[in-house]
Design goal:
By secondary structure, this protein is mainly beta. The chain has one helix spanning 15-22; strands at 27-30, 37-38, 56-59, 63-72, 86-93, 100-104, 118-127, 130-137.
Length: 145
């Protein structure tokens, strides 16, 4: 029997992110000092260096472009063993140059992906009130970051 897929651990810093994801909304942390998004938020803003960033979570479009991708053929965590192969994409989100997220591409591991392909956020429902952001290829829409 394969162990269950690991679930995200919610903490004070990430609670608003996961609450939004449960509603199928992508909300990212924005530093109140420099107004830049940070994924994930940390104790120090990676952009302005403030140690008191007081991040606030804001809804973003979820549109982005593929920077890179990989197909995972061997799970590094046992909870994913029954889900291989799967495709992970490194996405630059449209809201800010250099704002990147990595997520599963839900279109499937056989999908042809190219650098610069447009994607849109989608969500995997893992449990009641728990969803994980992922991506799907966007057709007919160009995205510029």
């Amino acid at each position: 029997m394969t162990p269950a897929r690991p679930l995200p651990v919610l903490d004070d810093r990430s609670a608003d992110y996961w609450a939004a994801a449960a509603r199928h909304v992508l909300a990212l942390a924005r530093c109140t000092e420099c107004d830049k998004f940070a994924v994930p938020p940390d104790e120090i803003c990676p952009h302005c260096g403030t140690s008191t960033p007081a991040f606030r979570f804001e809804e973003v479009s979820g549109w982005g472009t593929v920077r890179s991708w990989t197909v995972v053929h061997r799970a590094s965590l046992l909870g994913f063993a029954d889900q291989v192969p799967y495709l992970l994409v490194d996405v630059e989100l449209a809201e800010q140059r250099g704002l990147r997220m990595i997520g599963r591409l839900l279109d499937g591991p056989e999908t042809v992906v190219r650098t610069g392909d447009a994607v849109q956020v989608a969500f995997e429902d893992l449990a009641a009130e728990l969803a994980v952001p992922a991506f799907v290829l966007a057709t007919g829409r160009g995205v510029s970051a």
